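Shipment paperwork, digital attachment
Item: protein structure file
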Amino acid sequence: MYNVWENALAEIEQKISAGNFSTWFQDTTLLHTEDGHVVIGVKNSFFIKQLQSKFLDTIKEALINAGVEVKDINFEIQAKVKSKVRPREVTAGPTQIRDTLPTIKKNPKNQNTGLNSKYTLDNFVVGSNNDLAVAAAKSIIDKPGTSYNPFFLYGGSGLGKTHLVQAIGNEILRKHPDYKILYTPIADFYADFVDSVMKGKGKEFSNKFRSLDVLIIDDFQFIVNKEKSQEEFFNIFNNLHQSNKQIIVTSDRLPSEIKTVDERMANRLTWAGAFDLQLPKFEDKCAILRSKANLTGAEIEDEAIEYIAENVNTNIRDLESELSTILLMSDVRGLTPLELINNGSVNVVHESKLKPTTPKRVVDKVAKSFNLTTAELKSKSRVAHIKNARQVAMYMLSEELHLSTPKIALEVGVKDHSTVIHGIRKVRQDLKLNFALRDQIAEIKGKIYD
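Attachment content:
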């Protein structure tokens, strides 16, 4: 019976998206096929609803093609359904063998990468809040060790840093299966280092990291203020970089803002610039929610998507959590997500913890960052340094406070709102290549909300 279901799954996998297949068929099993009455085991009632409404015909056709008589198909909830789906190995060449499901080969070096295969670029939604970082990530995947090395990614909690860097690792491993790749939080790096010192295995520890092709360090802000561990990381960093091995580091802030990091290390981490993940805008949030719903095969109205996007103003993690909660309630209560919202069954409110700010504070902080007085920034001077500061203030008033261009013109001392439009566009264009400007704006943003 196992082989029958295995063959049926192989056919189903070819007919539906990878996301739907992994979501709805990963934990299924064929329980009975007696006299045309087929019973399939699933995890819960939500699975039954989705399989019946979306995939019943596909399942029936696949079973018939696998030699099973099918009069009707029923589903039963199993307390512990063991997955009968094994990933198929894709072979080079124009055809693939589909009549069996061999397991994927282990990495030739039997390495423990620390990577989670669920993090891919395919399920990472690209928007205006992360497009530059994703562009750099794709360049790294194409040429590891040569483009954006080191790659320093920073941003608040729940914005997708771990997802993006693990997706880079997974994609590099797919293209280069012989590469030695390691993803590790900085806390684990420190703990392993201390353990190696206690056991007299410091050299083995060092060699383990120096033999890597790709090193991914997560949550660098948690690096401890210990001279020996930082010195070891510094040496490993230099060794890998000089050997053109790819280094990827994430943090919730710039290295210069981490008190426990010395200046040498901070400078090296941003040699190739620093990329930030920002809070998604309304359109980005809608795209993220729609992608997540499509990936799980869930049905949700556009109005419900927009409601969640409007009321979650913290991070992507909270956004997806609210979506999951509403979908679960929808299944339990037998109502659509929009019906739940309209009858007051859900109350989605996630506000940013950032302190409110004012236009004056934004302009003051920008002026100070450029070593100017506020009066100088708002003057009619055309000196390049002052003009640049004024344009940055325009950009930040637009991005942070969403002021209209006429209002921004009043705040920075210019008459024509078209000048504001030009200034904002120029800063956005400069940010694509000017990493020093990106760092400066990130630093200003942090001080605005202190």
